[in-house]
Amino acid sequence: MAAGRILVATQLSSLFPSSNAPSIALQTSRRNVNVAATIPIADADLHPEHASFTSIVHAQHIGSVLVRVIHGGLIVELVSLSTQVPPIRFVFPVPVLSAPAVFTCAEQELHLLAVTVTGSLYRLVLPTTSTTLLWHDQVAPNWCREYIIKSVADFSGSIVQVQGLHCVAVGLRNGSLLRIEAERIGDDTCDDLWSETLNQPKSFLGAFTSYLPGLQSGASTAPEILSVASHPQPTELGHVWTLSRDRTLRVWTAKSGCVASKTLLGGSTSDPLDADPRNLLRIRSGGANDESTFAIAFTPTSADPRSGGYFQVFDSTGDHLRELHTVECSTASAHCHLQDFISNDGVLYALWERQGSSMMERTPLNLGISNASGDTIWETYNYGEETDLTPAYLDELLRSPGSLTEKFMEAIMRPGLFSPLTIRTALEQYIDACLSLPGPTPPELTTSYPTVVEHIAAVVGCTVNLVKDPHTGAVQYDHYWSALKRDWEGFVARCREVERSARWPLALYAGQSRDDIIMVERERVGILAKEDLPIAVHRHLSDSLAVDSHFAVLDIAWTLCDKIGPELLRNVESRVVDVLHQEVAFSIVDILGDQAQRLHFKDGLDDGTQNWIITRLQESEDLDRDTRIILDLVAGFDPEVKREEDEVELLLPPALSEWRVALSAAYVSTSVHARYDICIALMVLLFFLADDLREWDQSLLEEVFAIFRGLAMLRRAARRPAAARAYDHRSSEDAASTDEMIARMDNMQVSRNHSRFAPTFSLVHRLMAQSGEYNQLPSSAHHFLDTTGLLQSTSPAHVTHFEVQFCDCLRNLGYPEVAQEMLAWLPRTPAVVFVTAQLCIILGRADDAASMMEKVAGNFGPDSGLTFEDAEALASVLPAKALYDSDFSFYLEASAIFGSSGLTQHETSFLRLAISVAPPEADTADLWYGLVRGYIDLSSWEEAYSSIVATPFDSVKRDCISQLVYQMCEQNAVGVLVSLDFAGFGSEVDDALAFKARNTDPRTRPFYSRILYTWYTRRGDHRSAARTMYQRARKLQEISGKPADVISLMEDQLESYLLAINSLSLLEQKNAWIVVQAPPSNVKDFEASADRYPRKRRKLAQNLPLSTSGHSSEIIDLEDLRFEYTLLSTRLRLIRRDSTLLTAPDALLSPSLIILRLGQANQFEFAMTTARALDVDMSELFAALAGQCMRLSRSPNAVLQEDTSDWLLTDNVSSWPGSPADRGWRYLKLALERHDGPDTDYRYSKAALEAILSHDISSPPPPWLIHTLEDHHHEYLIRTSLRFDILESALEHTLSLIRKVDSKLSRAPPKTSCSTWLPYTLIDQVLVAVAAQDDLSSRGQALRRELQMEISNRVKRMQKISRFSQ
What we know:
- By secondary structure, the chain is α+β, with helices and mostly antiparallel strands.
- It has 48 helices and 32 strands.
- It has a six-stranded mixed beta sheet with strand order 3-4-5-6-2-30, with no helix packed on it. Strands 1-29-28-27 form a four-stranded antiparallel beta sheet.
């Protein structure tokens, strides 16, 4: 049984999303082009993104480049199959004719030549100097050149054959051939220079050869040309061969036009070929003479049930056509349509379309042999067995447990089944169909979704509603599920229909290597690869073909699978999977016997079938050997393949191509599927022989289960799509370079796509891409399967390091869910537990991860008890790639793992464990620091404090104290902070808080000044607490904020002053002081003011030791604090009353000005209290109060309309009897009694008197005011009367003064009588002033006489007393 070949393909939309390809719009020099008329009628079966024509060009420096014509010929796309360069699209103004071609030029340029339906020949010159950029590199100025064809006006139905850089042939619909040759290829400044030659199918030489035997010409009619061919490049032969609908093959030369023609076998004008252009003609050189030229033409026979047609080989050397032989097609090609064929290295390859899918055949072809005899042997190649989502398969799928939506989604998104373009197209069709339904539109249809998966899950079935039976009211769940299933089946049917169109074959091409055959479909590109042995055996078994004798037991097992039916087969598979997901606690023999008994396995087989199977098994000479052969088949790799791979790696550098990797991934999927089916068949056989397995080798049975486990894991990985988030870094780099690439192509009119989509790969593709290597198939697929090591395990109870590394690789790639699913197959060895713990960290199960890590810690050290396999597996997944010498080292590693994931709680937990088991010689300073730091980050304040106390390292204590204090303040844990003892660390806490209090904004949280105040207060250090609040008040005073913030700042200052006052008040009076640095001169506000008595503060002789500012220090006592508090509170009251004061802050600088403003605001009571506290003179305040009383006496209504709530309308004053004027004078009297006296020298009474006299000299002052001044300042009354020119009052006060002195004289003893004194000078001034008054009143005259008499009597009395005293 020889291994054959298999088709392997990958979808282009999964590798190169259309949204990621930049589009360049080309312009035309033609005028008045009717674009709508040139666009052909769209094929309903052809999606715009599906190619209608393709070609491939190979070059050593750029690899393989695929040319695709899409969107009905409007867009030509270039795709690099050998590099990572993104595709590029050229949007033509009108559709292009089949078929554009690409050629390389001197390894520096790539020329794309295309002819449009309007007769324009385009040459696009693209750069290829950079293999990493290719056509995205900077282009030349004249990169797009257009030539307008003049010989022909109608190009409808024409076919283009680009012979090379210098020649283009166009087969016209009327049978003529237009030849366009370049006389000069343009450059950056000039265009191409072309010449045109139009040849008719009948030429002179053609007419002459018609008379020669064997060289008959075709019919006189000239039907349209279906196929045009030329010799493959590079060549100097400029001939062109055409095949017309009348089955006539013609040869055209550049000079003579049509020089020969030949009607194909069975040709008749009454039986023309189909009008659709196809690849029916190929030209090759070779045979016995390398200079010979051969034409291979295909004639279809659609009505023949035996084959699809035949090939005719013609010798075309010397401008003649001589038929050599005919090659009959195979019976497998019957009712198929030939899409393309090629001759490569003596082999003829044919690509057929068979019921919408691709089929390839090949046969040996010797071009130089004439009239070859014998039957033609064709080898037929198809794709490997693929899952088809038929309704029957879907019904089978829904029988397994699980969600209906999840099952359908998993089937639809299986890699390789439907392309992303297919799914998107089917989704759009489904949405359009739903929108066309009557009724309201479901919101799911108009909602945007981040991923296609979410979009499908939300949209499909959105029109299905759960309804109730109109008669019974019961909820009709069955109807709902049936309708939902139908909706999903309808969506799957749409996907199948679009995918069928996408897989329509188009062309065949020879690859760069000798045996490479590339097949192109509308939306896929594949190759013809060698079958490995499992695929070949699987194909033979599936097609009921004979297999080699050493696979006889496998043939029996395969037959047994057919006999038991799909349901029992599925149950066997399910039972084996369940067993492998559990810990193997019993022998495999017992497990198989128990499961076979539970399934009643043999009950599903009749006796005849059982006897037949037993008889066939007895024919085996060694059942153990045959079973091992099957295991070698499913788990082994061809050694020749491996040797070939090693040789290739030495000779050729690895090619980095996503397309090649995707092909390898598809091949791996096919091979794994075949191996899995074979292994399932072996499992079914073991279930059948469950009663006889005790005689078997137990290790063999364990190996069967182990290999099945590996295949099941690989099968799951092959069926799992890779999430976009794990796409490797090349995608992000490509996306990041888009702007740069577009900037380089500005002159190409690139239309930028704003939305970009990551390619959609399978998980196997991601894994294979990690190696960055590729070799020919199947070597690359085998290399990947071999490196995974999943098929090297020998027992399901053990785990190899390959299996664990495979799961860990999935985790590192960003697929934790898949890794978790794979780990579920493995027993919980230490390595599996370790990887599972890391997965739990990613999945957010940190507690479970920590528990697992603690269990793994017991496997290190000399007494771990690990087996060699477990130790090797564990070492392979540890970060150090080696076992740790103790649990201490592992605890450190575990702590680092949790720390890197931001799981501080578990990081500190393992640090604590590491410290607990640390050896004596280990340096644990960093561990203690990390432990304390972790507790701080976790806000575990008590634990952090305990760790600081417990650590033996003073440096750690010093470093961590401040961090702990700051974090507790940041986290608003001040209560806990002040409750901790901090024995021995109090100074560190003081310094930390003081530093923050000095250097942070006192308005921002946390308020370190308040915290420090609380800290000092709780410890009884009231002086430090007062100093802290005083410094905070000063910092607030220095802040210059917006006017709206001034009030809040002043409130904070008041609070600080008040707290400082409270703290100092707790000290003894003699100790109620603090020492602070003297503020700079620019922040002293009222202290240097000249209009008040400055408060003297004691200056220290020297600076404090900790002072670094250079300012002297000063002592602030309790009175200073109270003074500043009172002053600030007064300012705040005024600002709240009149906010305009904020714009004139200097008006509130002096205390006297503040008192004055209070008086002006009628705040007399508050002003007096404040002035008394600030020790400010209140003369002006009492003068203002006296003025208000005068106004009350004259116009009380005007005064009452003002704000007098602070003095006249208080509860106390309002209760007094009398008029408002009476109450006002009484208030003034009482105020003077409280605040005026000998200590003030009655200056407030004097000020009130002067204010009264100044206000209205005609109004007599209140008698009580006069009496007060007469009792204490009689002379002042006299002088004031003189100053205000009130002579009668001056006379009265003088008389009163003399009489008062005389009364004292009469009561005094004689010896002291001479001590009495009168201001005679002042009395003389009064008399002089009165004498100078001409209009003195009669009362004044009387008072003057009376005064003169009193003075005379006084003088006489004093003389008499003087004589008696002598």
